[in-house]
Design goal:
The complex is a heterodimer of chains A (121) and B (107).
Chain A lengths: L2 E5 L2 E3 L5 E8 L7 E7 L5 E7 L8 E3 L7 E6 L4 E6 L8 E8 L8 E2 L3 E5 L2
Chain B lengths: L3 E4 L2 E4 L5 E7 L7 E6 L6 E5 L3 E2 L7 E6 L2 E6 L9 E6 L6 E2 L3 E5 L1
Parallel strand pairs in B: 2-11
Antiparallel strand pairs in B: 1-3, 3-8, 4-5, 4-9, 5-6, 7-8, 9-10, 9-11
Classes of the chains: A mainly beta (121), B mainly beta (107).
Chain lengths: 121, 107
């Protein structure tokens, strides 16, 4: 069974940092694109960033709103995926979801349960 | 960035009704469109990809059409488990963008 389990969310002050983790099981994450998608308190969904699969060198893409502040990465040995978030802003407050995507087809075929990040002083 | 719009933003319907949700892209996205369903308090779930391919396990009540800039998602016979918010997303170019969602609730 495919499972994605996020952790690492919490309350952080503006300007602070946080690292989210996504533990994958039931599949080899190196074979898939891995993304972070966030959902704001207002309900809108925003794609945050992607790490492409191994054949594509784990190259990355980011939304303009987070580029230069957020970094996606993987630990293949742990079958895990990460989101390092620096210089956090109040507008980064959201539920953060880890997703899996099949190369060349389904962009987000599996989702984790999410981890909540609150940026507030 | 490609802008995605959806209509209506919400609708009320009864069990057994047929409902249609429209998604429009600000430029041609060919068939690089996905649909997601989100029930209250849950993570989104994938329904459709490639504009017309149903994700494994998605019931046949769902049908889709469209390509280019205009797409529709139809639920042919609304069931209790279909009351949720539906989002479309384009994935032809970065940044991937979602529509604002259509909430389907019980009349």
């Amino acid at each position: 069974e495919v499972q994605l389990v996020e952790s690492g969310g919490g309350l952080v002050q503006p300007g602070g940092s946080l690292r989210l983790s996504c533990a994958a099981s039931g599949f080899s994450s190196s074979d898939y694109n891995m993304d972070w998608v966030r959902q704001t308190p207002g309900g809108g969904l925003e794609w945050v960033g992607r790490s492409r699969s191994e054949p594509y060198g784990y190259t990355t893409e980011y939304a303009a709103s987070v580029k230069g502040r957020f970094t996606v990465s993987r630990d293949v040995s742990k079958n895990s995926f990460y989101l390092q978030m620096n210089s956090l802003k109040t507008e980064d407050t959201a539920m953060y979801y880890c997703t899996r995507g099949a190369v060349g087809s389904i962009p987000h075929d599996s989702w984790g349960q999410g981890t909540l990040v609150t940026v507030s002083s | 960035d490609i802008q995605m719009t959806q209509s209506p933003s919400s609708l009320s319907a009864s069990i057994g009704d047929r409902v249609t949700i429209t998604c429009r892209a600000s430029q041609d996205i060919r068939n690089s469109l996905a649909w997601f369903q989100q029930r209250p308090g849950k993570a989104p779930e994938s329904l459709i990809y490639g504009a017309s391919s149903l994700q494994s396990g998605v019931p046949s009540e769902f049908s889709v059409s469209g390509s280019g800039t205009d797409f529709t998602l139809t639920i042919n016979s609304l069931q209790p488990e279909h009351f949720a918010t539906y989002y479309c997303q384009q994935y032809i170019s970065y940044p991937f963008t979602f529509g604002p969602g259509t909430k389907v609730d019980i009349k």
